[in-house]
Amino acid sequence: MQITATELKMNMGKYLSMASRQDIFITKNGQRIAKLTNPSPDRVAMLDSLVGIAKAENVSLEDIKRERLANV
């Protein structure tokens, strides 16, 4: 869902409740400026974000973290 910053200000409670079920993108002057989302990690999305960062079988967790941070 996409809403304007003004709409968010006028109906904050409504959108906070909705954020537990879906992501809400906030726009200002037609540009996305923020995303209101559920704090519980979506495991599928988390896995998708990790796909492709480990290039070898002998990669340590620290190597993965460094590479992930370098690509941000």
TrEMBL record:
Sequence similarity: Belongs to the phD/YefM antitoxin family.
Designated name of the protein: Type II toxin-antitoxin system prevent-host-death family antitoxin
